[in-house]
Amino acid sequence: MSTSDWNPGWTTEPPDHTARFLLVSGSDIVKPRNGWLHAGEQTRLQDLSTGPVSLGTSGERPLYVAEISELPPEAEPVSLREALLAGEEAPAALLSTGLQVLQWWRDHRYCGRCGQETGLHARERAKWCDACGIPWYPRIAPCVIVVIRKQDRFLLAKNARVKRHFYSLIAGFVEAGETLEEAVAREVLEETGLTVNNIRYQGSQPWPFPHQLMVGFFADYVDGSLVLQEDELSDAGWFAPGDTPPIPPETTIAGRLIQAMEREIAGDVSGG
């Protein structure tokens, strides 16, 4: 079932038989035999354990995300990370939004201030507490991710907690009171022992693990020797364009940043 015509949006109206569903089991996407969406006429609302939550429309049909207690026949669970790293065939924006919205729905069943059960906001994608008179919106946690350049090489690092055998970039959460650029410099120093400057914005990507916004940067090496924060990184090194270990695919901001840095270095070398 096609997802190419997804139009993000929000409604408080319940689904009808024309609806389409992105179904989730735990932290996995429940993938039907064809496509990523399930037909409304084949989805029993009584089988849903969380939701349904509006995601907009698919074509002219209303689209919802929901958690289901048992897998439908011939469906398979696929982790969101596997789907996003698998290649271009996965609808990354839809899957990311769906999982993040569902996580928000789970997390804000009750008001975080008074503990009363929340309801729906009348006009916005938000949960509403009548007692406190406050909305609870989907949470966004800003993170920085950075390629560090040192002359004609750049830094790649292996995360100590990730089992996949690829090297990626230095990344971390922005702390209260920090600018994005300050977060880049702090994370680099904490995880690698290096100092950087010329920190420059490159792009961003929603990353729903569970509700992050990755903000990408380039930075230039200034000083220091590699001293790795062992609970974060198991290995790191300087690599030349075209001569790297396995890296994330271009469907991720890490993959795109790495490829953009390779092009920048190659252009400077050929131009110099």
From TrEMBL:
Required co-factor(s) are: Zn(2+); Mg(2+)
Q: Which InterPro entries match?
A: NAD-cap_RNA_hydrolase_NudC, NudC-like_C, Nudix_hydrolase, NUDIX_hydrolase-like_dom_sf, NUDIX_hydrolase_CS, NUDIX_hydrolase_dom, Znr_NADH_PPase
In this protein, which residues make up the domain named Nudix hydrolase? Answer: 138-262
Highest taxon of the lineage: Bacteria
NAD as UniProt keyword: yes
Q: Does the keyword Magnesium apply?
A: yes
Q: Where are the transmembrane segments?
A: none
From the UniProt record, list the reaction(s) this protein catalyses.
Answer: a 5'-end NAD(+)-phospho-ribonucleoside in mRNA + H2O = a 5'-end phospho-adenosine-phospho-ribonucleoside in mRNA + beta-nicotinamide D-ribonucleotide + 2 H(+)
NCBIfam families reported in the protein's UniProt record: PRK00241.1
Family in the record = Belongs to the Nudix hydrolase family. NudC subfamily.
The record's annotation in PANTHER family points to: NAD-CAPPED RNA HYDROLASE NUDT12 (PTHR42904:SF6), NUDIX HYDROLASE, NUDC SUBFAMILY (PTHR42904)
Indicate what this protein is called per its UniProt record.
NAD(+) diphosphatase
Protein source organism: Marinobacter koreensis
Give the organism's phylogenetic lineage: Bacteria, Pseudomonadati, Pseudomonadota, Gammaproteobacteria, Pseudomonadales
